[in-house]
Design a protein that fits this description.
Blueprint: E1 5-6, H1 16-24, H2 44-61, E2 67-72, H3 75-87, E3 93-98, H4 101-110, E4 115-121, E5 145-148, E6 150-151, E7 156-157, E8 169-172, E9 189-193, E10 204-209, H5 226-231, H6 241-257, H7 259-279, E11 285-286, E12 298-303, H8 309-318, E13 321-322, E14 333-336, H9 343-360
Parallel strand pairs: 1-13, 3-4, 3-5, 5-8, 8-9
Antiparallel strand pairs: 2-10, 6-7, 9-10, 11-12, 12-14
Helix pairs in contact: 1-6, 2-6, 3-4, 6-7, 7-9
The protein binds 4'-deoxy-4'-aminopyridoxal-5'-phosphate.
């Protein structure tokens, strides 16, 4: 059996060591007489797995004590609705900065509950750049300001945390969480589905400043209340235990690899190699994102002749490089190179791209 280098945008590649450990523990976890996925979430075995995963994520991301860390089902999309329900009064104004597809979905989920002010929108420019901070039109009394730290489809990433002094900053970090050091204290809420940088799909991490949990929000069932989830250690109902366990293995692996500082260095090298390969191709490959906001995680690119796309994907697969087809919204190609993508994978892709150009240029 041979594993390819997998550039999928999510669900994405997992560390082989993690998959092997999960395989070894699949039938019986740590002398428990059963798999961890077969045991009660309230039993001592899973409680320890859950506690350790949270402790490791806190260490990995340097999360301050005045932030709650929730492990929830529902994906990032459900959180996009819950943010409005939990942190804004009915019809209250909230500010959204849109820099790609996922910023738009965030608005769609919030709109039934709040008055959305689009403070800035990069769509007119094809989402190839981030609107200058000076041009944002923030509201005076917004419940929060929301932005997407990394746009997974358009390949646009904020390289700095924006200054917004009027309201707490909420950020969708689905596709860049734990990819470099981050000052969590600048945020009200950070959230992300785990299926990109943190491991398996099916569990979503929500990091929320505790004082915000006291906001009344809107009438909602208990199951949609972050405060209730926090008060119950994310065990208000049965949590996605298998996914939580797997994410915990990924956290341990990331810490052993050197933590977010080390991943920041690797991610900088990986993305530079890929952008250099594209920019140095004399137009055979192209990426149109403004250089200062190019994503380190998702690199969309186009071949100069779309008629070559099918051959590119076929030959890449034969070379052990899979999941390079771009998102249907954009077409072309996309290489997702999260923490778990090894540098050798990106080196292999860059070498393949040069060879393919030589053969078809
Ligand atoms: N936000 C971003 C930045 C994403 O990349 C995605 C998924 N690709 C989502 C939100 C939606 O996540 P989910 O499928 O977990 O709801």
């Amino acid at each position: 059996m041979s594993r390819a280098f997998n550039f999928s945008a999510g669900p994405a590649t997992l560390p082989e060591a993690v998959l092997r450990q999960a395989q070894a523990e699949m039938l019986e976890w740590d002398g428990a007489g059963a798999s961890i996925v077969e045991l009660s979430h309230r039993g001592p075995e899973f409680m320890e797995v859950a506690r350790q995963a949270e402790a490791d994520l806190r260490t990995l991301m340097s999360i301050p004590d005045d932030y709650a860390v929730l492990f929830l089902a529902g994906g990032a999309t459900a959180q996009q609705a819950l943010l409005a329900l939990n942190f804004a009064a009915p019809g209250q104004t909230v500010d959204y900065v849109v820099t790609g597809h996922w910023g738009k979905t965030a608005i769609k989920q919030a709109r039934p509950y709040v008055n959305v002010n689009i403070a800035a929108d990069g769509e007119a420019g094809g989402f190839r750049d981030i609107p200058a901070r000076a041009d944002w039109r923030l509201s005076k009394d917004a419940a929060y300001v929301h932005y997407t730290a990394n746009e997974t489809i358009h390949g646009v990433e904020f390289r700095d945390i924006p200054d917004v002094d009027n309201a707490p900053l909420f950020a969708d970090f689905s596709s860049s969480i734990a990819s470099e050091p981050l000052d969590v204290s600048r945020f009200g809420v950070i959230y992300g589905g785990a299926q990109k940088n943190l491991g398996p799909v099916g569990v979503t991490v929500v990091i929320v400043r505790r004082d915000l949990l006291e906001r009344a929000g809107q009438p909602r069932a208990d199951i949609f209340s972050y405060a209730s989830h926090a008060a119950n250690d994310s065990m208000l109902n049965t949590p996605p235990t298998w996914n939580w366990y797997l994410a915990g293995l990924v956290f341990k692996w990331m810490l052993a690899q050197g933590g977010v500082e080390e991943f920041a260095r690797r991610n900088a090298r990986k993305s530079k190699l890929l952008y250099d390969t594209i920019d140095g191709s004399g137009g055979f490959y192209r990426n149109e994102i403004a250089p200062g906001v190019r994503s380190r995680m998702n690199v969309p690119f186009f071949l100069h002749d779309p008629a070559l796309d099918a051959a590119f994907l076929k030959d890449a697969k034969a070379a052990g490089l899979i999941s390079l087809k771009g998102h249907r919204v954009l077409g072309g190609m996309r290489a997702s190179i999260y923490n778990t993508m090894p540098e050798e994978g990106v080196q292999a892709l860059a070498a393949f791209m040069r060879q393919f150009q030589q053969a078809h240029g």
